[in-house]
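Bit of a strange request maybe. I'm writing a small parser for structure token strings and I need a real example to test against, not something I typed by hand. Could someone generate the tokens for this chain?
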Amino acid sequence: MKGLTMAAVVSLALLTNCANRMVGIPTENTAEKQVPAWYLQHADTGSEGWFWNKEGMFYAVGSDVSPDMEMSYKKALIKAKAKVVDRVVGEMNNRTSYKLDETGNAERTIGKVEAQELIVNVIESTALRTYAVDKKLTVYNPELTNYRSFVLIKITKSDVDAILKKYEQDKQNKLFNFKSNNLEKSSDKLLEKSR
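Reply from user aminoacidic:
Good idea to test on real output. This should exercise your parser:
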């Protein structure tokens, strides 16, 4: 009985000691910043699983810095999630404008040309709940007193397809509601005029 009690006490002490162990955070200096190979070499899509249950996957990475370790990780995670959603439901809008102004008299005009190209990438509000963090790394820079976090997330193709289906359904619903509202407004105007 004493041997069993002594073994339990030793096991409990070992477990407590392991639970309180601290892990060091890698450091970087401003001159030699390192980026993990998996961050630069990740694929955008791929498949995982064994022979009969392979599943298509989408991958995205994010990186950010902050004086707070947790905030650097959260910002990196948000960037990675935004990249996945952008690839699934992002919409591009492009506008180019060109303007030519002339001043002066007929013999001596001075022209001023302005050109602008505006590209807008719109990402609708989208629920991305089923992602998994595949890899992560946080490093500390003592010179700048900030943390840099790197994150690689993955999401299954079936979950991406569900997001796309919901997005397209929501878009159809908005279009239907817009048309219904316009029809109702037009009807009200016609009834008002007929009175």
